Amino acid sequence: MRARIWIDALTPKQGRLAACLCLALRERGYEVLVTCREYECTRSTIELYGIEPLAVGEHGGGSRLGKLVADVRRMGSLTEIVRSFEPQVLIAYPNPSAARVAYGLGIKYVALNDTPHAEAANTLALPLCDVLIASECLRGAFDKYLLPRTHVLYYRGVDEVLWVRRFTPTRGALESLGLEERGYVVVRPEELKAAYYSWRGWG
Fold first, then answer.
1. 112 secondary structure, DSSP code
2. Residue 22 has pLDDT above 90, yes or no
3. What distances in angstroms separate CA 51 from CA 47, 55, 142, one per listed residue?
4. Structural domains of the chain in order of their starting residue, each with its CATH number
5. What is the pTM assigned to this prediction?
6. Which residues does 201 contact at the CB level (< 8 Å), separation at least 6?
C-alpha cells in the first residue's frame, strides 16, 4: 500500500508547487490531501490545476501577535483534518503550523526550501523536519536550523522547473487578458507581510 501524503501551502507560489507535486504523486498512485491557507490567490492557484484544496486558516497580517494567533487557530483546525486523513508524510515549505501538527501526530515532515532568509519560519519549522530538500546552490545555508538527525538532499536546479515543465505558453492567454505580445511588463510586488521582509540595509 502506498503512503498517504499531505501537502500544505501558505502562499500562491507554494500553491503552484503543491498542485504540481499533487498531480505527480497521484499519477504514481499516492493518495494526496492538499491544504492551504486562505491568503491572496493561494487557493485559486491550486484550483487552476483541477485540484480542490481544503482552505484552513488565514494570514495573520504583519505583526508577530497576529501571526501567532492565526497559526494557533490554524493548528487546531489542521489537527482535526489531518488526523482523519492519517497521512504518513507531510510535504511543505517551512511552515510552523503544519510542522507542529505533523510532529504532534507522528507524521514525517519533508521540508522544501529556497528561502534561507526566512528566519522566523525556518527557526520554527526546520528543527521538526525529517528531510530537507533544497537546491545545491543553497548548500549549507540551512544548517543552523537543522537537527543532526535531519537528512538533507540537494538537487541541481530550482523549484520553479517543476511547474514550468507543465506549462505550455499560448497566445490565447495573452488575448484573454487583452495583452499584445511583448507589449506588457510583469511586476512582482514585495512580500510586505512576510516575517522576513524588511527595508533595513536597503540604503
1. E
2. yes
3. 5, 12, 31
4. 4-176 (3.40.50.2000)
5. 0.86
6. none
pLDDT exceeds 60 at position 200: no
Four-CA torsion 81, 20, 117, 202, nearest 10 degrees? -120
Contacts with 4 (C-beta within 8 Å, 6 or more apart), sequence order: 30, 31, 32, 33, 85, 86, 87, 88, 89
Contact 95, 121 (CB under 8 A): yes
Q: Give the pLDDT mean for 171-192.
A: 83
Segment 15-31 shows an average pLDDT of 96
Q: What was the pLDDT predicted at 203? A: 35
Q: Cell 536550523 appears where?
A: 145
The mean pLDDT value of the chain amounts to: 90
Report the C-alpha gap between 17 and 11 in whole angstroms: 10
First and final C-alpha spacing in the chain: 56
Grid coordinates standing for 19? 498542485
Say if residue 147's pLDDT is above 60: yes
Which residue, chain included where needed, has cell 507542529?
A: 100
Question: Given the C-alpha cell 538527525, which residue does it identify?
Answer: 149
DSSP 115-160: -TT-HHHHHHHGGG-SEEEEEGGGTTTTGGG--TT-EEEEESS-TT
